[in-house]
Structures are given as C-alpha cells and as structure tokens.
Amino acid sequence: MNPPSSKPSLTGAPEYDVIIVGGGPVGLLLGCLLKQQGQRIRVLERRTEPITQSAAIGITPPSLQILDKLGLASAFIRSGVQVRDCFVHGQRGKLGCVSFREIPDERRFILSLPQAATIALLQKHLGQEFIESGCEVTYVRQQGGYCEVEGGGRRLTARFVVACDGSRSAVRSLLGMRAPGRSYDCHFVMGDFVDRSGLGDEAHLFFTAEGSVESFPMPGGLRRWVVQTDTRMDHPPPGLVSRLTRQRTGFSVAAADQLNESVFTPRKFNCDRYYDGRIIFCGDAAHGMSPIGGQGMNTGFADAEFLAEILTRSEPLELLAAYNRCRRRAVKAAIFRAEWGMWLGTWRGRGRSVLRDFILKYVFCRGPIARRMGAFYAMLTIPFNTLKRVPASRLRPRTLDSAS
C-alpha cells in the first residue's frame, strides 16, 4: 500500500513503547503484561461491539499460570466451568475417558469460558483508557528507531508494533508477510444451547460413521455442540445442529434452546517469520491451526507472555530471534497435534469408524498412553508452553536467527 501523501518524518521520541493492533484475547493479554511492566501501550481494535458468535472456550493450565502473573487466574476460574473429564464415544458406545484429574499441575482441569467473557475480564484489567475501538489500521511503516501506524484517521508512533489482529491480519497483508498454509477438507457447525442434557461439567466426544459431534459445558447453564458436516454450510438450515446431534448421539437438543451459531472450515498456516524489524506477529496473526482440541488461543497466550518479557528488556531487537525460534517450535507442535486429532476424529464410513474405535479404546483410553493423554490435551507437553519452560540460554541475544 502506498504511504499517505502528507506523512511527517519520524523525529523525536515515539508516543508509545508498544502499539498492539487487535483487541482480542491475545492482544489484550499482551497489553496487560506490558502495562504491568510500566510500558506505554495503546491497543487499536477495529470492532466497536462485543463479539456475539461462538468462539474459543478452552483455557489450559499453562495459560492459567500466565494469568497468575496478572492476579487474574482466580477471577477466570470463578467465571468458568472446570472440566475434569472428557468421555470418548464410538459407534457402539463409550470407549473411555481422557481425565485431567491426575495431570502434573496444581490445576487439574481445562477451564471452559466463552471468548467474550475472556475479553471482558482482560479489558477490565487493562482499562478502557488504553484501548481505542473503531480504529482500523490502514498503514504501517518503520523508520529508524520506531514505527508509525495510521488508523482511525490519525497517526501514532511507537518503538514496536505487535500485530494481534487475527488470521486475516491487516498488518500481515500490509507488510506482505507470507503465511503458507491450507484449508482442511472437513467442515463444522457449532452452537451454544441452554443445557438440558444432564451431562454436568463433563465434556463428551462422539465419533460415528456419519460424522463427529463434540459437546462441552459452559458457564451460565449452557453447553456447546459442534457437528461435522459433509460440506461447508455458510447458511445452515434451521435446527441442523439439533438434528445431527440427535441422530449421532441420541441426545435431544432442542432447536429452540440454541442461542447462536458459527460455521467453520479448519485451516492451518504459519508465517515465514514472526517479526520484521520492529513489527512483530503474535497469536493468530502469526499462525493458525485447527480449533479441534482448543490449542489456538492458548498458543497465542504463550506468544504474548514470551513477547512481553523480551520487549521490556534492554536489548529487545536482539531477542526477537529467540522469540521466533521458540514460538515457531511450539506452534509446529501445536499444529501437528490439532491436525492429528482432527484427522482421526473426522474419519467417516463404517470400516474406518470400526478401526478408529479400536485405536481409541485400546491405545488412547487404556494403558500407559492413556495415562499421558490428560497432560497431552492440557498442553503441558507443548515445548515452551510458558516462559518458565524457556531455558535462560535461549533468552540471550544472538545475532543470527534460525527459524527452526
């Protein structure tokens, strides 16, 4: 994009230490962490209204450890539902359970909390005075020791710009940063319902020859149901989630109890690099993965924690190479896990369904592997899942970068 015609030269001290583009969960968490370290920040958010569609709900123990730094973990836990057991069902009934009750962490559960509630808690902690809503970024450049951003009809300057503006990142497009990836050949519709299932705080996964159904408890007496569909349905027929849920699981989920609906076709992508000079990519602006397994937002939280640490050090530019190396390694692991779980879970047809039931029952729900599955899905075995897991040697400045 061509720069504005009346741009001033970048002289003097920048207005901010960090401008964050995007006020979703990852951008807000980064803002909170940087504010805590005394940084001058500004969050630019394109939306003016809260999100209403179904979105991320799972918060893992490593993410709660990050929220502990802000004193927010307890407030999040009070607002959400603690999921300690996830029951797995096959073509002929229950196959087993992935339990979080014995994982090696003090919080032995996955927290279910709608993304809108996560955003509200982080906004309150950060403070509205640090957030500028209705501000769409149209121009970004860097010159000398800082960056210039144009959005909302005015220009701002900062030492660094962090793009947290989602999978369709405007900043990524403005810079021409490559993000190789692809869409998967499977499709889903999900909705949140008034919960009359009697399943309580349990999660349930149903794998059938006709397609999968996932079910997760939510606070406020709600439950999310996610159904696999043959093709992408941008405009699903009324009652589709209810009908497919009843056909595949036997649970009667009334269409009248449905509060919202979202359609998605999973895709994956990974930026070639997570930074370009003083412009940095974080969360879904840097990488994308299947939402099956709930790893995307949590991976972004770990990005934000790492980035907040290095941006408050005396040599942040030299440490961006470490951010790139460590976070790309973590993201590759998360993408692989999400992809693997979705690949197995979306098998269709009688023969493949029988084979999947055998694999799930006798490999993943019994024996030594089964005992590790809780920690696996709680993201405790993802490399560098929190800053505590990053060796000090990796946080030393290096002159050469290796995007391993």
Tell me what the structure shows.
By secondary structure, this protein is α+β, with helices and mostly antiparallel strands. It has 2 domains: 217 residues, FAD/NAD(P)-binding domain; 78 residues, Alpha-Beta Plaits. The protein is 31% helix and 26% strand. It contains 10 helices and 21 strands. The strands form 4 sheets. Strands 1, 2, 8, 9, 10, 11, 19 and 20 form an 8-stranded mixed beta sheet that branches. Strands 6-5-14-15-16-13-17 form a 7-stranded mixed beta sheet, sandwiched between helices. It has a 3-stranded antiparallel beta sheet with strand order 3-7-4. A hairpin with a 2-residue loop joins strand 19 and strand 20. The longest helix has 30 residues. It is globular, with a radius of gyration of 22 Å. The N terminus and C terminus are likely disordered.
Major sheet, described briefly?
A: 8 strands, mixed
**Based on CA inertia axes, which overall geometry fits?**
globular
Q: Which stretches are low in confidence, meaning pLDDT under 50 for 5 or more residues running?
A: 1-9, 399-404
Q: How many structurally independent domains?
A: 2
DSSP strand count: 21
Mean pLDDT: 93
CATH topology of the largest domain: FAD/NAD(P)-binding domain
Q: How helical, in percent, are the residues?
A: 25-40%
The CATH architecture of the largest domain can be named as: 3-Layer(bba) Sandwich
DSSP summary: helix tally: 10
Radius of gyration: 22 Å
The top level CATH class name of the largest domain: Alpha Beta
Strand-residue fraction?
25-35%
